[in-house]
Amino acid sequence: MTTTAGAGWNEDKLSERPAVALLQKLGYLYLPAAALDAGRGGSLREVVLADRLGAALRKLNPWLSDANVHKAIRAIIGAQAASLIELSKLLHGHLTAGISLEQDLGKGTQGQTVRFFDFEQPRNNDFVVTRQLRVKGAQREVIPDIVLYVNGLPLVVIECKSPTIGEKWKTDAIHTQLLRYQELDEAYRNLGAPQLFGTVQLLVATCDQEAFYGTVGTPQRYYAAWKEPYPYSREEIARVAGREPTPQDVLIHGMLHPDNLLDIVRNFVVFEQDQDTQRLVRKVCRYQQFRAVNRALARAREAKKVTGRGGVVWHTQGSGKSLTMLWLALKLRRDKEHENPTIVLVTDRVDLDAQISGTFQRCGYTNPERAESVKDLRRLLTGGGGRTVLTTVHKFQEVTGTPTVRGNKGLRTPRVGQAVLSAERNVFVLADEAHRTQYGGMAATMRNALPNAAFFGFTGTPIDKEDRSTLQTFGDYIDTYPIQQAVADGATVPILYEARLPELRMIGQSLDALFNRVFKDRSLEEREAIKKKYGTEESIARAPRRVEAICADLIEHYETKIQPNGFKAQIVTTSREAAVTYAETLKRLQGPRAVVIMSSTNKDEQALADHHTSEAERQDCIQRFLNRKDPLAILIVCDMLLTGFDAPVEQVMYLDAPLKEHTLLQAIARVNRLAEGKTHGLVVDYWGVSQALEEALKVFAPQDVAGSMTPLADELPRLQARHATVLRFFAGVKDQSDLQAYLKVLDDAAVRAEFNLEFRRFSQSVDMLLPDPRALPFLADLRWLGKVRQAARVRFRDATLDISDCGAKVRKLIDDAIAVDGVKILMEPVALFSKEFDARLAALQSDEARASEMEHALNDEIHVKLEEDPVFYSSLKERLEKIIEDRKAKRIDDAKQLALMVQVREDMEGRGGAEEALGLSAAGVAVYGLLEEVRPLQVAEKRDRRYNEANKALAEVLLLTLEPQMQIVDWTEKEDVQREMRRLMKRQLQAAKLEAERIEPLVLKVMELMRVRKGR
User: Fold this and answer.
1) Which CATH entry fits the domain spanning 496-708: 3.30.1330.10, 3.40.50.300, 2.60.120.1130, 3.30.450.40?
2) What is the dihedral of CA 417, 422, 428, 429, to 10 degrees?
């Protein structure tokens, strides 16, 4: 017996079953979903397993009374909030910190903390995995592939797909299912079951060969891979799984292993207020953050020497370094081995201090205290443990004091005369941007002030080859996450660079030659006088004529390349005077709205004084800049906002300053942050830094700075390659103007998904280059393929083929092309029963094209209406599938296929005739259909009459019975109302003498039907 190749290659076999098998090996108990339903309070809307939760509460809190067990369960099940994300925050607090309940333990009634998990001993908890759990929403039932329960609480939801369906799998798993289940988009309103996600911590989409995770509220573009299973090895996974690990195995073992899962839930989740939208955002760690924090904690615990307890964490700029520091602080605070520790967060700049402080405060970290002065720093560090102190390194220079040594063995005893603030061992210093150029000798002063502290240095740039002092001060590397890895993981966008106006560059040119070019219209005597007084690089750099030439180029570049996609810019200059010159020149040339961000003094000349701003005004300008809709487009700086400034809206940095080494890496990283629609950051170089980029970065090991900046010119060969790749889909199409031939290629959903991916890549490359003339040869194909994509979106009713994910420049090209070439009727969605649909069919040139159009329109209509009238539309679905199968098997031709589908449409359109014939509403006809399934007409009856009068009457009675209940506001959310509706229906069906075993399934179907039709 032979088998067809690929038989059984589905998500169940290739992804879902292997995932469950590995989870079982990790310690999860597998229970079928049906076995859990009894513990769900008798309702498929309930997701908490109250019986298992109650048992876990009694085990972890043996003193808890039955009444308080019930109260603790209700604190979870009955929790309410204004939105899903607010509910998620509330319940995360309950699960990690516990709740307080009043109970008498023999010393009078007192508040006692109730624990939901044993975080210290993960195996002391109840881990369950189940498949195909049915959860009732307002109108629909959702069925996640896998749900992980811990102590009766759903913590993880997993959607599995087959790797054989191509790129489409990710959109199907995340957008079509996980986001719909949460009802995150208005289009998904009442189509999911958001109550499932109150306690859920992680959401996973996997196809075995790829796996991505997010958390509640995460948009699809921010789902990430978990690429390292720390603290486990791939060899260990292979041993447990019994096979070479796949990305799915790595994620499951690395994130969902009981030890790691509870660690993530407790220590690696924050809720942060988004600075742009002001919305609450739930964030969970990436693998490098989890790894770095736990490695740092392990070193602090295990080092034999006091001075060996720290080290350096190098995570490239933009990859979440501030959150890594936050999570390390949180975990140190909870670590029992370091009782009531003092945590000192140190930066070298006031703006970094404010940035770190802001991150901690927005994320709800308890009581971080900023040292406003040296005296304040002394007070905070000598006043006992338990504090989290934020300070700049400079405050340590002037400290004086006497150490308080409590006789702890193994501690360093400060030498006489050293300025010591605390000699305690449980002091942890987390220093930001901890490399030589930032700290210099001040690191030694910190060591003197805190002689027995553990020092962790965090940096977004690598340690240079000559800088041994940083490693001597903080210790060896704890964790590294270089630039190329961050880009490969999608944690940051790649940075491209482009050198412009070479005749005005400062580097690589003779200063005399540049001087003569800038002042060529002056006499020889004037030039000599100017050179004598102003003949320095900085003076030449801010020469009005040079700045004017750069500003004219900059305006054109920004308005054609950056502004159309909704992004903003930063200009980096040599001095405050140069920054002011740029601001005034941009204003005079009517360029984009810009503002100078700089420090100021009372001694400044009037030209500078005119641009003075207070600290509050500077912060207001920054907030306006961060707001994508605000017209403030450009920030002009000389040394501020080059580090610690997180602005996803910034896509381009116009560089006119001699930056090098760490300063260069820190500055250009301003443009590498993720943002919607942002495919890359760009550095436009007017100084000449990129001309000598290798020289500028030679102090670093080559592997450490690989990929830091890529020449924009390199995008052309990549564009050429992507162009060739996307055209290969249509290599068999003879006439390149034949839209229907192109659509035929895309008839298969997997092919469409692959085409969609390659088209996006092609359009991104075009968008990067436009309006560069080098992109012009590709525009004709871009326009045509864009039209094909839009026509496919309409033909196949495929929402993933949406040009909104293309850059604004590309969208305009495609929209303009569609508007002018006479195929617009094929580009706009039209209703199946409209005259416009008939006109579309008539415009098509072949029966094959018309049949394809009709097939997908019918499929879409059936999909939309199936739940409103399941019996009728299920029968139409079966008919349509039979027609399609017959055509593929060549039992019928295109013309016959079209004729049969036209009949299906006529039957669908004639559904109103059944309402008229039966004298029932549309809802009544749908209920009648359900009754026909369980009480069909007999053969003899069918000869005499068309409709079953008994079922018609019973349908009327059921609707009349339910109508008063359905008038109750929000009845779909009220279990007591639904319980009464089920009771009333059962009574009517029993009176109608329906077989007892058929009553319960029928009642559930009618209830679901009423939710779909009435619960809006």
Assistant:
1) 3.40.50.300
2) -50
